[in-house]
Amino acid sequence: MATKVEPSILKKGVDVSEVSTKVVQIIPLDDIEARIYRVEQGYRVEVSSCLSDYWHPGVFWDLQQLEAWLYPELEKLNAGFALGGDWMMLEGDFDGNGKYRDWFICQAQNWQGFDPMTNCCYSAPSYMALMAKIDQIEAFRSANTSEISNPHSTP
Question: Are the CB atoms for 61 and 70 separated by under 8 Å?
């Protein structure tokens, strides 16, 4: 899988007030639930089933295009097949793939964290270094969101 590694959000100056990861649609199918999120560049999806959770790093520009692609994927999963291709399985033990502060993280040659708001990938040489980088980005977002929501507060 090719990942887009971009400079830190701290250097890019992304306007965090315009970025949201709200669920825009939930698609239930038996014991499966797909959650479609609105991100800066379009839409992305997470899928939960009774056996596994999956995250897809791709971003779709169009919601209808995502839905048309997603329904056959959900049917495969419903038929008992694991999702392959670019899908990444989430595991709760953090020995491979998992989530930290709503970021999908995985260990390849380095640790990688996929930002759910910008869909950018950030790398670090260790799990602790990646967590520190994510904490720094989230603290920056939180501080800027607080300033935007209350512009008359004093520092």
Answer: no
Residue 103 CB neighbour total at 10 angstroms: 21
Distances (CA, A) of 17 to 23, 115, 116, 152: 17, 15, 14, 16
Owning domain of residue 62:
9-149
Residue 1: inside a domain: no
Task: Judge whether 2 lies within some domain.
Answer: no
Question: What is the domain count for the chain?
Answer: 1
CA atoms within 13 Å, Cβ hemisphere of 138: 14
Q: What pTM was estimated for this model as a whole?
A: 0.58
pLDDT tens per residue, range 87-133: 877 654 445 667 788 788 877 778 888 887 776 788 899 989 999 99
